[in-house]
Structure formats: C-alpha cells, structure tokens
Design a protein that fits this description.
This protein has 360 residues and is α/β, with parallel strands linked by helices. It has a domain at 20-231 and 292-324: Alpha-Beta Barrel (TIM Barrel). It has helices spanning 46-58, 74-85, 88-93, 115-129, 148-160, 174-187, 210-217, 252-263, 266-282, 286-295, 310-317, 326-335, and strands at 20-22, 29-31, 33-36, 63-65, 95-100, 134-139, 164-170, 194-196, 220-221, 303-305. The strands form two sheets. An eight-stranded parallel beta sheet has the order 9-8-7-6-5-4-3-10. A two-stranded antiparallel sheet has the order 1-2. It is globular and about 50 Å long. It binds NADP nicotinamide-adenine-dinucleotide phosphate.
Length: 360
C-alpha cells in the first residue's frame, strides 16, 4: 500500500501517493479521490462492488459516497455488508458519506427535506449501512416545500444525537446554499461543510456562481460525474450512437436522447480532442487527465469517482497524485470554456480586484 501523505488544501503534495484535503471547513481529512457507489447493486454486483471497495482502500483512499436512493437502498446495504467483513483497518479509516431527500416511498411524506421525512430516511440509512454514525450526511437537493430552518434544525439535532458527524449539501444553487449557511449561522445551527454538484470538463457552469459561493463560505466542493458519465474516457464517438454495455448504450431510449443532446454540441468534441492530446502527450488515459484537471480546480476537495468495473476504477485511481502542467491545463480550460464572460457573471465590476480613484 502506498504511504499516506497529508496535504493542506492550499498546497497539495506532488507525487504518486494519494493526497488528502480537509472536508471543507471541517477538520476531517479525506482523499482527493472518493469512491462513488451509484453503480453498486445495478451495473455492479455485490462481489464486484466489494472488490472496488477493497481496491480503493488498498490504494490509500478513505472517502466513500453513497445515497439512500442508489439502487433503491441496495448500494448502502452493499457498503454495510462490506463494512462488516472488511479488515478492521479499512473499517476504521473509511469516511462514509450518504444522502437523503428523494423518494423512498409513495407516501406524500416519503420524500423531501422535512424533519418528518429526514428522520425516517437517516435512520434507514444508518440501518442499511450498519453504523451508529454517518460521517457526512448530505441533503441530496433543495426542497422548495420545506423551510431550510426546519431541515437545518433536524440536521443539528442529528449531529447532537451522534448520528451525523458533518452536514453537506448537494445540487444546491448559489442562493440556496448561501441561504442555508446564513440561516445556520443566524440560528446557531450546524453549518454545512460541503456541496456536491455535477462538475466536469463538459459541465463547468457551476464555476459562475455556485463554486464562488462555496469558496466564500468555506464549503468544500465534491464533484459528481467527473467523467460526464463516461464521455470523458473517449468511449463515445461522433459518428456512432452508443451500443453495448455502456451507460448510454444500455439505455436505448434515454441513452440515445442524452447522447444526441451532448453530441450536437461542438464543445463536447473539442474537449474530447483536447483530452486525447493531453493524455497522449503524457502517456496517461483520458480519464486520468480529466480527473487530474478536476481535482486541481479551485475549491475542489474530493472528486467522486464512478466505475462499473475494478479495471475502470484502477484506471481512475491512476489520477492520484497526478498534476497537469499549466500548458495542459490551459488547453483543457480553453476547449471546455463555458463562456463565463457572458452577462451577468462577466458583467460590469465582476472582475474588479481593487478600486481606482474613478473606480465603481
Ligand atoms: N449528488 C448527486 O446528485 C449525484 C449524482 C450522480 C452521481 N453522484 C455520485 O458521483 C459518483 C460518480 O458519478 P458517475 O458514476 O456519474 O461518474 P462518472 O465518472 O462521470 O461516470 C462513471 C461511468 O463512466 C464509465 N467509466 C468510468 N471510468 C471509466 C474508465 N476508466 N474507462 C471507461 N469507462 C469508465 C462507467 O460507465 P460505463 O461502463 O457504463 O460506460 C462508469 O459507471 C456516483 O457513484 C455517486 O456517488 C452523485
């Protein structure tokens, strides 16, 4: 097993070893590559899932992300059964994150961020995972029907009850997360420490407002779908709709629609070409280049890997300790530029760093 090294978020260490950053403004250290478990219990069977978990821990990672709705609870159960039989050292080192919010029953109170639903959802997650405490409990998305204070009070009570160590948000917009943080501060409730948004070379719009809000409030960013669901591995082609055992190929209707939507955008193919150039120049895979780019973006704490097979996971873990040069980063930045200079994000005054006498 490689030696574990600790790096501050400001100055990550270079090298082949797994690196660690603190979980947002908390004191908990997590590997800059996390293991996502959305495929567990669906594309990946239990044996394959346990293999991935062991491989990830052997490689020096410690951060594992699941959710109550992944494979209708089966993902949490698979992680829970692994925790039961995993070597003590893995069990003690693992930092477990899960989520609640989406529908777990047909009941009108079977979804949402109400105290009523979250109390049931959190207990069910703890039961499936077989633990008394989950390290990071994330609300899976905003709920317009529930006052944020109700959600934050429930989460604060759960922290005090010892069921949660840290609170996180997922899929919140800039104003939603700012409101959550402000209400938590004003009412003396536990502050969220992370945000989990979709973020990758094909989806950079989060850089306009959401990531600046995270940086301003000290929330660590945990990007999901870092490979755009597989696109950034180069497996999808412009001239051929996907077939076979791929996320899009297995899903003839939704997959083709999703493929067409992304394939129509020139930027998709520009990014893939730039990635291929960086990967070939370095002798690494396109996935590794895409993951290394993302792990070094401002504000990012830990990139949540997804894999169907252990071979894919091994490839992705090859991004540990990998840092691209300024030229390589620049090439990828340019090809993937989402046009941030457009109004209002690039509007008057947004780039101002100092005031001149005549300044605004
Ligand atoms: N908070 C949220 O709302 C949210 C939403 C989605 C995901 N997540 C989290 O983020 C994690 C990762 O998301 P994701 O699965 O969408 O990540 P992703 O890395 O964008 O896509 C993973 C998929 O890409 C393909 N792939 C991955 N590595 C590969 C490689 N080296 N070579 C070839 N193909 C490869 C595999 O699909 P195929 O083999 O099928 O092509 C794999 O299942 C999830 O497990 C979950 O924990 C959170």
């Amino acid at each position: 097993m490689p030696a574990l090294v600790l790096a501050s978020p400001q100055a990550p260490l270079q090298g082949d070893d797994v690196e660690f950053r603190t979980l947002g403004s908390s004191g908990c250290s997590v590997s800059t590559l996390a293991l996502g478990t959305m495929t567990f219990g669906s594309e990946t069977d239990e044996a394959g899932s346990h293999d991935q978990l062991n491989r990830f821990m052997e490689a020096g990672g410690n951060f594992i992300d699941t959710a109550d709705v992944y494979s209708a609870g089966a993902s949490e159960e698979i992680v829970g059964r692994w925790l039961l039989k995993a070597p003590t050292e893995f069990r003690q080192r693992a930092v477990i994150a899960t989520k609640g919010r989406f529908s777990t029953s047909a009941d009108p109170n079977g979804a949402g961020l109400s105290r009523r639903h979250l109390a049931v959802a959190l207990d069910a997650s703890l039961r499936r995972l077989g633990v008394d405490t989950v390290d990071l409990y994330q609300v899976h998305s905003h709920d317009p029907l529930t006052p944020i204070e109700e959600t934050l009070r429930f989460l604060d009570d759960a922290v005090r009850a010892g069921k949660i160590h840290y609170v996180g948000l997922s899929n919140f917009t800039g104003w939603q997360l700012q409101k959550a943080v402000d209400v938590a501060d004003a009412k003396g409730l536990t502050r969220p420490v992370t945000l989990q948004p979709q973020y990758n070379l094909l989806v950079r719009e989060v850089e306009w407002e959401i990531i600046p809000a995270c940086q301003s409030e000290g929330l660590g960013v945990l990007p999901w779908s870092p490979l755009g669901g597989g696109w950034l591995t180069g497996k999808y082609r412009a001239e051929q709709r996907p077939t076979g055992a791929t996320r899009l190929g297995e899903n003839p209707e939704r997959g083709v629609e999703a493929y067409d939507r992304r394939s129509r955008q020139r930027r998709t193919w520009d990014v893939i070409e730039a990635l291929r150039k960086v990967a070939d120049g370095r002798g690494i895979s396109m996935a590794q280049a895409a993951l290394a780019w993302l792990a070094d973006r401002p504000g990012v704490t830990s990139v949540i890997l997804g894999a169907r097979t252990t071979e894919q996971l091994d490839d992705n873990l090859g991004a540990a300790g990998l840092h691209l040069s300024d030229d390589e980063t620049g090439l990828l930045d340019n090809a993937s530029d989402p046009g941030a200079a457009d109004y209002p994000y690039g509007g008057p005054g947004t780039n101002q760093r100092s005031r001149s006498i005549k300044g605004t």
